[in-house]
Automatic annotation (TrEMBL):
The keyword Transcription applies. This is AraC family transcriptional regulator. It comes from the Bacteria. SUPFAM superfamilies: Homeodomain-like (SSF46689). Transmembrane segments: none annotated. Keywords: DNA-binding, Transcription, Transcription regulation.
């Protein structure tokens, strides 16, 4: 049933791996064993956009990241990503982001990048391979302490949702928000993983948040529609599972971590929860970092 979700994900992966080499439809279709026509038809059916448009947006988004993060000459970046000239790349950049490469490099104003599309998830994998959701691969959840300095958090807070899936289903455009935050990733608080989700509390209710943590001295622009809040420094109890196979083990890993996080008694470590002016965080980077829930605490009064 989900064969083409998996195949389109392979197309997406192949495009990302070959953006600097001007990938052709014929080359990709040969790698997958399907005709070019069938590949383009199924790509559009599954993602809602043409393969050509997806490649174009991913390439120009990668150009923006090169301009933001390196000192490469604009001409060299154009050549690196297959443009016939600097002028051709400039026209594409202005069309995509409404600003020239030179202006963007100087200002680093938030723009909406096209992030890598995901159409084959652990949900699809579990439907395909019902016997692969094996809890025996889940390692014991680690409990440790981490200090996070005072910082700003830029993003969105939604008191009407308390989980990732419902957040994106509540009139928040995932592509727009994730793409804009991706363009700001160089501003992220040292040691953090970039785009971050979590929970906050308001008048006894629990809501969901999504954005990026940045240093207190960050003076960059706040994207339209987003806010920033000052988060005090704090000790956090971290409930952590090391890197794992995303498709096979995401659900059981997240379940194990969150079950411990929401039922843990911090008094066993000499702390109490301290979430009134702070917020809980998720770190979710399965193959690179793993999964963690971070909850702020303060020392128990003697």
């Amino acid at each position: 049933m989900y064969e083409w979700n998996e195949m389109v994900q392979l197309m997406i992966d192949w495009v990302d791996d070959n953006l600097g080499e001007t990938p052709t439809l014929l080359e990709m279709s040969q790698q997958l064993g399907y005709s070019p026509y069938y590949c383009t038809k199924q790509f559009h059916l599954v993602t809602g956009m043409t393969l050509r448009d997806y490649v174009w947006m991913r390439r120009i988004s990668r150009v923006a990241m090169e301009l933001r993060d390196t000192n490469e000459r604009i001409l060299d970046v154009a050549v690196m990503y297959g443009f016939s000239s600097q002028e051709a790349m400039t026209r594409a950049f202005v069309k995509a982001f409404g600003v020239s490469p030179n202006v963007y490099r100087r200002s680093k104003h938030p723009i909406q990048l096209k992030v890598r599309t995901e159409v084959f998830s652990p949900y699809h994998y579990s439907m395909k391979e019902q016997d692969t959701m094996d809890n025996s691969r889940v390692q014991p959840v680690e409990v440790k302490m981490e200090f996070i300095p005072a910082h700003k958090f830029i993003g969105l807070w939604d008191i009407d949702t308390d989980n990732y899936g419902d957040f994106w289903g509540n009139d928040h455009n995932c592509d727009e928000i994730s793409g804009t935050l991706e363009s700001m990733s160089s501003r992220t608080l040292l040691g953090q993983l970039g785009q971050t989700a979590g929970w906050f509390y308001e008048k006894g209710r629990k809501g969901y948040l999504y954005g990026i943590p940045v240093p207190m001295d960050d003076i960059g622009d706040i994207p339209e529609g987003m806010q920033h809040k000052l988060i005090p420094d704090s000790e956090y109890i971290v409930f952590y599972h090391p890197p794992y196979h995303y498709l096979q083990d995401n659900w059981p890993v997240m379940q194990a971590v969150e079950e411990l996080a929401w039922n843990f008694d911090p008094r066993t470590l000499g702390y109490v929860w301290d979430e009134e002016q702070k917020q809980d965080y998720q770190r979710h980077f399965p193959e690179g970092y793993g999964y963690a829930v971070l909850r702020p605490v303060k020392k128990m009064e003697v």
